[in-house]
């Protein structure tokens, strides 16, 4: 193979220009389909995906003419390593590749257009966003909640059941043809973390955090028993899944009012004030942009405001699940979101803008390096900034809280609200890809999809379905966006760990003193230094392995649960006191009264 590294660089820059325009065309086609779910747009999106895959394959073949594994220049070698990794684009059978893309497109459409219709009126149907979200968040009638929970799974999960096995088969067949001959899609996805003992590290992190989760679970279970009755919820069993304020029981913030430790303090639920003060969607996005600018990051460019989709259109079907989009041309970046006026969506806006910030900060990198340090880092940026924005003192600064009670009870209330978002998520974030990796490696088969899903859901989350599941018809994993959407999920578990490490690091750099949970990095005397550190990490993209990016932020290279435990320590102590006499954990054999 060619050993001349100058010739290799020429190859890279020629590739880079072409990669930008090929990526642009396929992202535009995906954007057009996601914002207007028509058959024509689906067809165009599949065609663009196939063209991009063809380009990737040709580049990989040309790159293999170089003896790149023996290059001296580490960056050049890393670039060649990235562009010879094809994933499903390695599929040489065009018909199979087209079928794979068509199934993905169909699954997206089924999920994003699904509706749950009233038992007694099939013309009265509820969409996930906002109708079923609102139902799970604010309904307090046990049976009505069950209708919303079951109706969504009937409408979407069941329709996807027979498509998913073929998708799995085609995805595995494709990645097996990659240069690394991946044994299955899960192995390929895990390779992005470049960490040999990745699964062990994840398990260790989870084991360190499950005591905290079990304490929160026991406290919430007790409060739900008070609300719904002792005949509906066992003192020692799992919690019925439809009572936790969220369609997937992955964030419990919407039942804060049922579990508030010290009532009578200033409400931390700022949604009523947002609505009373006439907050608009635009004001929500501007508030987020202002915070990024205040922290010395790059501001949203004009085309972001011109080309994004911020609200659900009335005249067409779209993919409502929020996402951020990089058009690989250094200036066209967008968010697609069906925004509602509430605190949840203000936090989500920061999450999505965090992705945009990464795109803007690493746009000078060659295309293969325009990724997060690892996929979890990309998910962590926006959440990291939202940890500061969510503090009562910051919410007061932006006019969402009139008074801030500064006492221990108010602190516990605040930490409870944060735990209902961040701690409740951990088992879900961990189990999603435990299930999917099992499906990809064949240990979970179509016949066992649903029972294995509920084994994991009960084992890790301590929840059970409120109605019996029908293994022959139900496909409950399909009722969660990321399964039909084929978006890997362990990235969110990684994010919920590392965002607290980043938060602690930036709080220290900003000169914050006092408890970690009171830190607002924009209030620190050295906030500029904190912003510069964040920008430096973002500009790296994936040009180096993620421990190097972790070191830039935190001074050390490993993932660690210490920061999230430090942040929640006052609540952990409080929960342990409250849970005296309670059973921690759950008896998996308990089932609700149907
Ligand atoms: C946590 C994850 N966030 C996202 O998709 O942006 C979710 O919504 O399930
Ligand atoms: Zn995200």
Report on the architecture of this protein:
The structure is a single chain. By secondary structure, this protein is mostly helical. Helix content is 57%, strand content 4%. The protein contains 23 helices and 6 strands. The chain has helices at 5-34, 39-63, 74-83, 94-113, 128-138, 142-160, 164-175, 185-191, 198-228, 256-259, 271-276, 281-294, 302-307, 343-361, 375-389, 392-397, 408-422, 425-440, 449-461, 490-510, 527-540, 546-554, 562-578, and strands at 115-118, 121-127, 239-240, 323-326, 333-336, 463-464. N-carboxyalanine (NXA) binds at residues 351, 492. Residues 351, 355, 379 line the site of zinc ion (ZN).
In short:
The protein is 57% helix and 4% strand. The protein has 594 residues and is mostly helical.
List keywords for this structure.
binds zinc ion, binds N-carboxyalanine, 57% helix, two-stranded antiparallel ribbon, mainly alpha
Compile the SSE list and pairings.
Elements: H1 5-34, H2 39-63, H3 74-83, H4 94-113, E1 115-118, E2 121-127, H5 128-138, H6 142-160, H7 164-175, H8 185-191, H9 198-228, E3 239-240, H10 256-259, H11 271-276, H12 281-294, H13 302-307, E4 323-326, E5 333-336, H14 343-361, H15 375-389, H16 392-397, H17 408-422, H18 425-440, H19 449-461, E6 463-464, H20 490-510, H21 527-540, H22 546-554, H23 562-578
N-carboxyalanine binds at residues 351, 492.
Largest sheet: 2 strands, antiparallel
Query: How much helicity do the residues have?
Result: 55-70%
Low-confidence stretches: none
The string of secondary-structure elements, in order, is HHHHEEHHHHHEHHHHEEHHHHHHEHHHH
Bound molecules: N-carboxyalanine, zinc ion
Shape category: globular
* Computed structural class: mainly alpha
**Helix tally?**
23
What is the CA-atom radius of gyration, in angstroms? 24 Å
């Amino acid at each position: 193979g060619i050993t001349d590294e100058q010739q290799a660089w020429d190859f890279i820059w020629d590739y880079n220009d072409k990669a930008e325009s090929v990526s642009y065309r396929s992202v535009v086609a995906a954007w057009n389909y996601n914002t207007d779910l028509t058959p024509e747009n689906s067809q165009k999106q599949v065609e663009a995906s196939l063209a991009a895959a063809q380009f990737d394959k040709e580049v990989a073949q040309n790159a293999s003419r170089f003896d790149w594994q023996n290059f001296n220049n580490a960056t050049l070698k890393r670039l060649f390593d990235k562009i010879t990794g094809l994933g499903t684009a390695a599929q040489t059978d065009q018909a199979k590749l087209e079928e794979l893309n068509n199934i993905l497109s169909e699954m997206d459409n089924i999920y994003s257009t699904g509706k749950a219709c009233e038992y007694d009126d099939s013309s009265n149907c509820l969409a996930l966003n906002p109708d079923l979200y609102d139902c799970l968040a604010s309904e307090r009638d046990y049976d009505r909640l069950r209708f919303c929970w079951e109706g969504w799974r009937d409408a979407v999960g069941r329709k996807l059941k027979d498509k998913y096995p073929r998708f799995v088969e085609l995805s595995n067949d494709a990645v097996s043809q990659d240069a690394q001959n991946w044994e299955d899609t899960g192995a390929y996805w895990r390779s992005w973390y470049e960490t040999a003992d990745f699964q062990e590290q994840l398990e260790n992190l989870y084991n360190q955090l499950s005591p905290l989760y079990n304490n929160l679970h026991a406290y919430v279970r007790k409060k739900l028993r008070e609300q719904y009755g002792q005949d509906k919820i066992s003192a020692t069993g799992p919690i019925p899944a439809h009572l936790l304020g969220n369609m997937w029981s992955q964030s419990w913030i919407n039942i804060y009012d049922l579990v508030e430790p010290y009532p009578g303090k200033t409400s931390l639920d700022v949604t009523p004030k947002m609505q009373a003060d006439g907050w608009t969607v635009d004001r929500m996005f501007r508030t987020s942009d202002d915070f990024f600018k205040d922290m010395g990051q790059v501001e949203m460019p004009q085309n972001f405001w011109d080309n994004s989709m911020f609200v659900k259109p009335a005249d067409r079907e779209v993919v409502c699940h929020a996402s951020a989009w990089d058009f690989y041309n250094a200036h066209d970046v967008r968010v697609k979101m069906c925004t509602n006026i509430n605190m949840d969506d203000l936090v989500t806006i920061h999450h999505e803008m965090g992705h945009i910030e990464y795109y803007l900060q690493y746009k000078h990198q060659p295309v293969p390096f325009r990724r997060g340090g690892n996929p979890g880092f990309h998910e962590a940026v926006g959440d990291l900034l939202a940890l500061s924005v969510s503090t009562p003192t910051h919410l007061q600064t932006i006019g969402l809280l009139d008074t801030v009670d500064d006492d221990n009870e108010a602190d516990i209330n605040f930490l409870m609200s944060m735990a209902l978002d961040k701690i409740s998520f951990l088992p879900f974030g961990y189990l999603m890809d435990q299930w999917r990796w099992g499906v990809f490696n064949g240990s979970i088969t179509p016949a066992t999809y649903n029972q294995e899903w509920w084994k994991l859901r009960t084992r890790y989350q301590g929840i059970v379905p409120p109605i019996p599941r029908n293994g022959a018809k139900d496909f409950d994993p399909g009722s969660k966006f990321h399964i039909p959407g084929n978006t890997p999920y362990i990235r969110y578990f990684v994010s919920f760990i590392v965002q607290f490490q980043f938060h602690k690091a930036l709080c220290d750099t900003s000169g914050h003193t006092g408890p970690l949970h009171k830190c607002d990095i924009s209030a620190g005397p050295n906030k500029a230094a904190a912003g510069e550190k964040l920008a430096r990490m973002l500009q790296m993209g994936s040009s180096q392995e993620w421990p190097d990016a972790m070191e830039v932020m935190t001074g050390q290279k490993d993932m660690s649960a210490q920061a999230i435990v430090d942040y929640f320590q006052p609540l952990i102590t409080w929960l342990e006191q409250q849970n005296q006499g309670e059973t921690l954990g759950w008896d998996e054999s308990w089932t609700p009264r149907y």
